[in-house]
Amino acid sequence: MTSSPAGRVLGSVDATPLEFWIGVPAGGRVQLDDLVCVETALDDGSRVRFFGVVDVVRKRYEGQAFDSDAFRHAEGTLPVDVSYAAHVAVTRIEPEVFVPPHPGDAARIVEGAEFEQALYFDRMAKKIAIGLTRSGEPVYANLEFLDGTRGAHLSISGVSGVATKTSYASFLLYSLFHSDALGADAANTKALVFNVKGEDLLWLDRPNARLDEKARAGYAKLGLPAGPFQSVGLYAPAGAGSTPMPDVGSRQEGVRPYLWTLRELCEQRLLRFAFADAEDARGQLGFVVERVEAELARLAKEQPADEAGITIEGMACRTFDEFVDAVASPWLDALMARGNYASGTVDAFRRRLYGIAPRLGPLVRGEASAAQYGVSWASHQVTVVDIHKLHATAQMFVVGVLLKKMMAEREQRGSARPLVFVVLDELNKYAPREGWSPIRDLIRDIAERGRSLGVCLMGAQQTASEVEKRVIANAAIKVVGRLDAAESERAEYGFLSKVARLRSNLLQPGTMIVSQPEIPTPVLLGFPFPSWATRADEAAAPPPDPAKARRDLFSRVK
Question: Among 39, 140, 203, 344, which has the minimal tally of Cβ within 10 Å of its Cβ?
Answer without folding.
Answer: 344
